[in-house]
Specification:
The chain is built from 3 helices and 4 strands, in the order E-E-E-E-H-H-H. By secondary structure, the chain is mainly alpha-helical. Helix 1 packs antiparallel against helix 2. The longest helix has 35 residues.
Length: 138
């Protein structure tokens, strides 16, 4: 499964990994490429979410079920307020998942960068700050 981050133009670009630089297409549709300034991270155990991967997948499947439930509700002409309640629950679920993932990133990737020096710390903090900004805009 490929993860993506929403860019400011409403499209998606490959998500920056916790480890190492990522190159992806220009979100504006140009032929150039953009490289994230993530610092190489060789910490064992992969990404910060690795230990909770099964729980995260289970949680995302539950959220997916909520979204499918929204589709069924529309097909069955359910009352608007009931659908909006389900939208709220689905949105809250995704926000909660995102915050958990962010916490794991801070605990794993940012903490690991702290052992590598000021440049690595600055890069990971900047990366996390941008992720928080995206979450707040959504």
């Amino acid at each position: 499964m490929t993860t993506t981050d929403a860019d400011t133009s409403g499209g998606t670009a490959p998500a920056a990994a916790c480890h190492g630089p990522q190159t992806h297409s220009d979100p504006a549709g140009g032929t150039g490429s953009v490289t994230d300034t993530a610092v190489e991270d060789s910490a064992p155990g992969g990404h910060g979410y690795a230990k909770q991967k099964d729980a995260h997948i289970k949680r995302l499947r539950r959220i997916e079920g909520q979204i499918r439930g929204l589709q069924r509700m529309l097909e069955e002409d359910v009352y608007c307020i009931d659908i909006l309640t389900q939208v709220s629950a689905s949105t809250k679920g995704l926000q909660s998942f995102g915050l958990q993932l962010l916490e794991e990133h801070l605990r794993h990737c940012v903490a690991d960068a702290a052992t590598k020096g000021p440049e690595a710390i600055d890069a990971k903090v900047q990366e996390a700050t941008k992720a928080i900004e995206r979450m707040l805009r959504s």
